[in-house]
Amino acid sequence: MPWCGRATSSQAFAGIVIVLERRTEVRPPDHRIVEWRSWSGERVRFMSKPITVNDGDFATSVLGADAPVIVDFWAPWCGPCRAIAPMVDDLATEYDGRVTFAKLNADDNPRTMSSYGVMGIPTLIAFKGGKEVGRLVGLRPKPALKQMVEGTLVG
């Protein structure tokens, strides 16, 4: 059975170590692996997680992205933010390769918060081609989030 985990050795440069078909590959930490086949041919699937963005890299990571990006503005102390997080993670896996999901900590990134007029959290903003194309404020059910993602892909 293959093993996947975060490297602990400083010589592995904090990458992700993956053993596939009796080979070991070290990939950068931002490389998202969603699926591969184990030695026995069994499919092994991993959840694709949202990327983390901040004031410094928002323009390049979100506005400059080729694919649509949905940014979750959240804070660690926010109960509704913690409640919506698993739904965002599920959608990140479901739409992997078509939509990028990102998380921006509202407490640590006030410049981006004020630039987009985010007054309450959780807020999800959809960007396509560097422009805002949709927004949801507050805790919503998963079908509402999915509808926003579909609208972003179509619109």
Please provide a written account of the structure.
With 155 residues, the chain is an alpha+beta fold. It contains four helices and ten strands, in the order ββββββαβαβαββα. The protein has two domains: 4-45, no CATH class; 51-154, Glutaredoxin, CATH 3.40.30.10. The chain has helices at residues 58-63, 79-94, 110-115, 142-154; strands spanning 4-6, 16-20, 23-27, 35-37, 43-45, 51-53, 69-74, 100-105, 123-128, 131-137. The strands form three sheets. The chain has a five-stranded mixed sheet. It is globular, with a radius of gyration of 17 Å. The model is unreliable at 1-34 (pLDDT under 50).
Short description:
With 155 residues, the protein is of the alpha+beta class.
Tags for this entry?
single chain, 155 residues, alpha+beta, Glutaredoxin, 2 domains, 5-stranded mixed sheet, 10 strands, 26% helix
Order of helices and strands: EEEEEEHEHEHEEH
CATH class categorisation of the largest domain = Alpha Beta
- Principal-axes geometry comes out as globular
The percent of residues in helical segments reads 25-40%
Strand order of the largest sheet: 6-8-7-9-10
**Care to count the β-strands?**
10
Low-confidence stretches are 1-34
Average of per-residue pLDDT values: 81
Write the SSE topology.
Blueprint: E1 4-6, E2 16-20, E3 23-27, E4 35-37, E5 43-45, E6 51-53, H1 58-63, E7 69-74, H2 79-94, E8 100-105, H3 110-115, E9 123-128, E10 131-137, H4 142-154
Helix pairs in contact: 2-4
